[in-house]
Design brief:
It is a single chain. By secondary structure, this protein is mainly alpha-helical. Helices cover about 65% and strands about 5% of the residues. It has ten helices and three strands; from the N terminus they run H-H-E-E-E-H-H-H-H-H-H-H-H. The chain has a three-stranded antiparallel β-sheet with strand order 1-2-3, with helices on one face. Helix 3 runs antiparallel to helix 4 and helix 7 packs antiparallel against helix 8. The radius of gyration is 22 Å and the shape is elongated. The protein starts with a helix and ends with a helix. It is a multi-pass membrane protein. Belongs to the ThrE exporter (TC 2.A.79) family. Keywords: Cell membrane, Membrane, Transmembrane, Transmembrane helix. This is Threonine/serine exporter-like N-terminal domain-containing protein. It is found in: Cell membrane.
């Protein structure tokens, strides 16, 4: 009985951790964890989820465990994978040990978009949003390349240096430099349009949305923590652009 309870807690915590680290809302994480416990015969489980930690307990056995949440990225494929496994467990298609083993494999087997496609998508998002925000078609190609370079710069810095928000600062710094150099070199016509479009892939839109959804759902701590993180990310982007303007002496 004790081993079963421990396995159940570890399974619920692992499912919750995967969902939290990949952009799920707090209420969805708690609901998934409680459903897994209920389908395993523990209807009186209790879970408490924050942006940096997950707590899970079983009232019937007085067992409780805690799991840290370190990274927070956006990968909805992994969230879908967890939900799919949870439904399979609810329908008795897999056992609890099989569910736990499958969850452990999610980070390795869940496909993610290749790097070239991510960079290409960042360029497309940058150039199209530049047009939507009132830019000129003559700046479309330049914005595409600047947005792509800025995005891949952020990925490289995040992988090379484990300092939070530094990747956004360096990426926006590169974007600002390339934008000003492109205008001064006659490749584009408007610095504002280039920068506004190119920084769009860096803006933490999903984090801000999830922050408000958590707050509206009553999860004030998690919502505030996510909102603060999003604000710091936006501030890093703004400081990077402001640094470029300071170094180059403005837009001219």
């Amino acid at each position: 009985m004790q081993e079963t309870d421990e396995l159940l807690l570890e399974t619920c915590l692992l499912a919750g951790k995967i969902m939290m680290e990949n952009g799920s809302e707090v209420y969805r994480v708690e609901d998934t964890m409680n459903r897994i416990a209920a389908n395993a015969g523990e209807a009186n489980s209790i879970s408490y989820v924050t942006a940096t930690g997950i707590f899970m307990g079983l009232r019937s056995s007085h067992y409780a465990q805690v799991e840290n949440v370190h990274d927070r990225v956006i990968n909805l494929e992994k969230i879908v994978a967890v939900n799919r496994l949870s439904r399979s467990f609810a329908e008795k298609q897999i056992t609890l040990p099989q569910l736990y083993a499958s969850l452990k494999k999610i980070n390795q087997v869940t496909p993610s978009f290749p790097l070239w496609l991510q960079v290409l998508s960042a360029g497309v998002v940058s150039s199209t949003l530049m047009i939507i925000f009132g830019g000129n078609w003559s700046d479309f190609i330049v914005t595409f390349f600047i947005g792509s370079i800025g995005f891949i710069t952020g990925l490289w810095v995040k992988k090379a240096i484990d300092i939070r928000f530094l990747d956004m600062f360096v990426a926006s710094l590169v974007i600002g430099c390339l934008a000003i150099l492109s205008v001064r070199g006659g490749l584009a016509g408007n610095v504002d349009n280039l920068i506004i479009g190119a920084v769009m892939p860096l803006v933490p839109g999903v984090a801000i949305t999830n922050s408000f959804r958590d707050i509206l759902a009553g999860h004030l701590i998690s919502g505030t923590a996510r909102g603060t993180e999003a604000i710091f990310t936006a501030a890093a982007i703004g400081v990077g652009i402001a640094t470029v303007f300071t170094l180059f002496g403005g837009l001219s």
